[in-house]
Amino acid sequence: MEEKIKKELKSLLKKCDARLEELEAEYPERKGFMEWLSFSGISRRGFLKWSAIMSATMMLPPVFEQRVARAAEIASRIPVIWLHFAECTGCTESLLRSNNPGVAEIILQYLSLDYHDTVMAPSGESAEKSLKDTMAKYKGKYICICEGSIPTKMDGKFLRVGSKAVTGLEKAKEVTKDAAAVISIGHCASYGGPQASYPNPTGSKSINDALGINSVIIPGCPYNSASLVGTILYFILFGKIPTTKGGRPLFAYGKRIHDTCPRRAHFDAGEFVREWGDEGAKKGFCLYKVGCKGPLTYNNCNIQGWNDDIASPIKAGHGCIGCSEPAFWDRMAPLEKPIEARILPGVESTADHVGWTLIGISAVGMGVHAFYSYFKGKKKGYNKECCSEHEKEE
Amino acid sequence: MSEFKRVYRMNGLLRFNHWAMFVAFIACAVTGFYIAHPFLVFETGEVIDSYVMGYVRLIHYLGAIVLDVILIIWIYLFFFGRHPYFKFIFPLRERGKEALQMLKHYFTLDMKDRPESDEDRMDALNAWGIFLFIIVFKALMLITGFAMLSPQINAENTAIPGGQYVFYYTGQIAYIIFGNLVNIRIAHHLIAWLMIFFVIIHIYIEIWREVFWKEGDISIVFSGHKFLKKK
Questions:
Q1: Taking CB atoms and an 8 Å cutoff, what residues of chain B touch A363?
Q2: B196 interfacial to chain A (CB closer than 8 Å)
Q3: Maximum distance among all alpha carbons in chain B?
Q4: Looking at beta carbons, which residues of chain B come within 8 Å of A380?
Q5: Nearest chain A residue to B179, by CA
Q6: Where are the domains of chain A?
Q7: HSE on the CB side for A267, CA within 13 Å?
Q8: How close A297 comes to chain B (CA, Å)?
């Protein structure tokens, strides 16, 4: 068994090395990556540490550490077009405003971002020109990262972008056509987001649904930058990404929040926060009673947090709201109560209300039936045939 | 005095099945409501002092194991059991007619409407109830429960080799029926309420029979026998 695994690993490493060399030859070298890192306060040692953390995040064995470092260097060469659609730009903000940027954030900032609506220097016509140039120059080579959902009603007229006011739908179709890979980040691009929740007046859809493509999705509100960098590195290392059933990368979305939770011991002990600011909240008890949706959500917040692994919602003291699950705005609400408090569509009340109503109906029905049987039975001389002798005795 | 004969209705195994389900169902219902709404909150601050939710979930799972094993045995007996009893619980067409007649009897109180009941045979309405409760509801509870438990089950913590695949693929059936984990969670809760509703009706009908038929129906589940008037 062990030898078989070793053999497999060897062939995998060989493939991986061949792929890395191929990619290094394909994309022109870009000097200054290490200088940029040291300028941002990351030493070489820190970078290698980060490679080790990243390979652990991607659930790869330690042999991959140096290859991950190599892949990170290649990642800085790949041209990226970053598109924004109907969204709050929170995903970009979460990346740019990180207080203490880690290597993942720096790599994302250093990525050859040839077109990024929020951070690029050119505007208007020249911005459009840089997009056209990149698309022509790196045809079939660039990675397209999509952020935000695409309104589809009225031919997508709810969303117009740029100086020529093209609709989001047209732009997305044009750019994703020639991309080497499409990655949808954030809940909006992955599942439609709050604007796609009921009743969805603009007909907003996720990137995959609107364009009919099969991109890798990295849901979350905002997404975790470690997951995005991990996905890019995985793509560079192996060419394809193992995904869960819904298309999410398996390394990041394979485990449930509840099962990796730092407060899990308090759940098992029956220690819960009852309301915000009470004794339990101060002691860091389980947030299940104030609406943590961890038992229903798959993500890696507890393994690799935001802001250089300092924070995640549960560490900060608020329960999970299930932002990496499809249509969480509709399904997980109310966000600060347990899932039983959900108003069920159709009956417009909670599951417990439905249950108590059933019990009430049965109680009333049984009472009425019992009285009915008593009086009807009396009137009819019930059981006269059956127990006539018995009655005679009386 | 009219002559009564003592008829045999439930054999020992069926009575055992009934009481095992009684205990397991109550355990599952109480612990299930605790898991949904943890009404007892402990604030010792030291997790080593209490393991309340852990024990509650353990009891829930032990009850669920009893109910699931009973379900699997019933399904097995339904297909391979030689006794006509197990085929009888399936709601076929003629049984449907008989069940409706029984339902009519509950409202007209007319003994003529009451289907003929002899030894070793319950009425069709009862059989329908058993089918709904034991097969349909419990099967739905099993697949939704497995779907919720499957993320925690891996090769290291299953007693049966390959158990994680059993959990995973059974859970996938629930995903096909209910779509997503939230709906599965809500469905598990709603079906629990339906089962409680069902149990209440069941208890009422048994008492009603005892009072209005005067045939000692409640003792069936204790001694296996009831009394029928000789004809």
A1: 200
A2: yes
A3: 71
A4: 109
A5: A326
A6: 2-252, 257-341, 351-393
A7: 23
A8: 8
Interface membership of A49 toward B (CB under 8 Å): no
A342 in B contact zone (CB under 8 Å): yes
What is the chain A residue with the closest CA to B193?
A: A355
CA B181 – CA B166 distance, rounded (Å): 18
What CATH number is attached to the domain comprising B113? 1.20.950.20
Nearest chain A residue to B181, by CA: A296
What string of DSSP letters covers A80-128?
EEEEE-BS-SHHHHHHHT-SS--HHHHHHHHSEEEEETTT-S--HHHHH
* pLDDT tens, chain A, 394 aa long: 788 988 988 888 888 888 888 888 887 777 777 777 777 777 888 888 888 888 888 888 888 888 888 888 888 778 888 888 888 888 888 777 665 566 666 676 666 677 777 777 777 788 888 888 888 888 888 888 888 899 988 888 888 887 778 888 888 888 888 888 888 988 999 988 888 888 888 889 888 888 888 888 999 888 888 888 888 888 888 888 888 877 888 888 888 899 889 888 888 888 888 888 888 888 888 898 888 998 889 988 888 887 767 788 898 888 899 888 888 888 888 888 888 888 888 888 888 889 999 999 999 999 998 888 888 877 766 555 544 444 444 4
Quote ipTM for the complex: 0.83
Which residues in chain A are contacts of B192 at CB distance < 8 A? 355
| Interchain CB contacts (distance < 8 Å): A and B | 137
A340 touches chain B (CB under 8 A): yes
Give me the domain span that covers residue B98: 4-229
pTM of model > 0.90: no
In contact, B4 and B228? CB cutoff 8 Å: yes
**Three-state DSSP class for residue A144:** strand
Q: Between chains, do A255 and B151 touch, taking CB under 8 Å as contact? A: yes
A358 to chain B: nearest residue by CA? B197
Rounded CA gap, B186 and A295, in Å? Answer: 13
Report the CATH fold assignment for A257-341: Cytochrome-c3 Hydrogenase; Chain A, domain 2 (4.10.480)
Number of structural domains (chain B) is: 1
> Measuring CA to CA, which residue among A264, A98, A219 is closest to residue B151?
A264
The kind and range of the H/E element at A46 are: helix A44-57
Task: Specify the CATH superfamily of domain A2-252.
Answer: NADH:ubiquinone oxidoreductase-like, 20kDa subunit (3.40.50.700)
Q: At A272, phi and psi to the nearest 5?
A: -125, 150
